[in-house]
Every structure is written in structure tokens, then in C-alpha cells.
Amino acid sequence: MNPEIIVFFILALVAVIAALGMLFSRNAIYAAIFLVLNFATVAVFFLTLGGSFIAVSQVAVYAGAIMVLFLFVIMLLGADRLGQTGTLKWQMPLALVLGLVLIVETVYVLFTQIGLTSELTALPEGFGSPTSIGDLLFSQYLLPFEVTSILLLVAMVGAIILTRHHKK
Amino acid sequence: MVPTIYYVVLSAILFTIGALGVLIRRNAILIFMAVELMLNAANLAFVAFARAHQALSGQVFVFFVMTVAAAEVAVGLALIVAIFRTKHSIDVDQLSSLKG
């Protein structure tokens, strides 16, 4: 039981508990804060997996921008008061059963079909650093990079148009 | 060294919790947050495999997934705000008519 595995299990427990907290919390603001905790935990996982640039961009983009956007909209729409009495009584037990089936099936497939037990070698120097990611991003993945910039432009224009007041 | 399978199983568990969130919740914003959780779980699997095969392409793809998720959240929340303006409710059970 080396320290890495202990740290992994503690962080995994925090991540799963935060996800379940987001799932079952009554208040939308609490759900958003639980999700921020989950994102921060996943950012630490990215760090242990040698993705330092991705870890920081996860904190900056996901936890810093996307969740702030969610919180603004939740407070704008007053959605933090939720009425959870569903109209279909059998919906939640059925969803839980199906979720359990999905987990059991996925774990079974992972352990029997895919060869994931190869030895992990040491990472080369600068793996996951901004230099090496930028190297790949601007040479091999230049076309997706440019397409993503157009996608961001479309998203900006779309968000502005959708929230315009129509003067009738 | 933590084996890759641990990360992938954790990613599967987080993905299932996100899928449950989409099924159980009736608030449109919370459904959206569960979708973000699913995307995040997929990102974790990508980075774990990038580590296992020492291929940096996995992390570049995670970068693109984050960008697409950010664009999707912007447009999706704008849609929810626009729906709220007309229907005054974001309960998906009540969004059942196609008429605007």
C-alpha cells in the first residue's frame, strides 16, 4: 500500500461523495458547489497523471468560468428553491437500478475484456507541460484548433442573439 | 504507480452518477450540471489513457473537450434563460409543448 494508492483512494472518495452530493442535494447552489469540489478533485487527478497544463486549465475553465456561469444563471432565475416531488413515483428507483446495472456492466467489461494491466513506465521530461501540448496543438491538431475558434465565435454570437429582448 | 484501471473505473462511476443526474432531476440547470459531470468523467478517462500509452494526444483532446463544453454551456444557459422568460419555469416536466 504505497502512499500514492492511499492518496488516490482518499481523493476518489471525495470525488464520488461530491458527485453524489450534487445528485441528491435539494438546493441548486449546494449542488453547484459540490460540482466545483468534484472538478477540483479531478484537477488533482490530472496532476497525478502528469497533465499539469490540463489540470490548471480544468480549474481555470471548468471550475472558474463554467461553474461561475452556472451560479449566475441559478441566481438570476431564482432556481435555488426546488420542489422535488416528482410526478412519476417509480422514476427514481428505476433510475437507481439502471445506474447500478450500468456500473456493474462497465466494471465487468473493464476487468475482463480490455488489457489495462500493462506496466507504467516513467514519463519523459516535460510530458503534459504547456510547451509539449502547444507543440502538438499547433502542428498536428491545427485544423481542430481553428475549427474550435470558429465554434467559440458561433457560441458567442448565439448566446447574445438568444438573450436579446425582442421589441414587439 | 496507480494502475490505469483504477482511474478508468472511477471515471465509469462518475459517468454513471452523471447519467443518473440526467434521469432523476427535473430542473433544467441541474440536468445540465450532470451533463458536465459526464464530460468530466470522460476527460479523466482520456488523461488516464494518455498516461498509460504516453501519448500526449489524449491531453490535447481533453483541451478540445473543455473548449466545446464551455461553448455548449454558454449557449445552453442562454437557451434556458430565454425559455424562462416565456414560460417562467425551468421544470422540464412542464416544457412539454412545442409552441413558444
Class derived from helix and strand content of chain B? mainly alpha
Please state the CA-atom Rg of chain B, rounded to the nearest Å. Answer: 17 Å
Kindly report the average pLDDT value of chain B: 89
Task: State the share of residues found in helices of chain A, binned by percent.
Answer: over 70%
From the N-terminal CA to the C-terminal CA of chain A, the straight-line distance is 68 Å
Low-confidence stretches of chain A: none
Total strands of chain A: 0
Task: Write up this protein.
Chain A has 168 residues and is mostly helical. Chain A has two domains: 1-82, Four Helix Bundle (Hemerythrin (Met), subunit A) (Up-down Bundle), CATH 1.20.120; 129-168. Chain A is built from six helices and no strands. Chain A has helices at 3-24, 28-48, 52-77, 91-112, 130-139, 142-162. In chain A, helix 1 (3-24) runs antiparallel to helix 2 (28-48) and helix 2 packs antiparallel against helix 3. The model of chain A has no long low-confidence stretch (mean pLDDT 87). By secondary structure, chain B is mainly alpha-helical. Chain B has a domain at 27-87. Chain B is built from three helices and no strands. In chain B, helix 1 packs antiparallel against helix 2 (28-53) and helix 2 runs antiparallel to helix 3. The longest helix of chain B has 31 residues, at 57-87. The radius of gyration of chain B is 17 Å and the shape is elongated. The termini of chain B are far apart. The relative contact order of chain B is 0.13. The mean pLDDT of chain B is 89. The interface between A and B is large, with 81 and 66 residues.
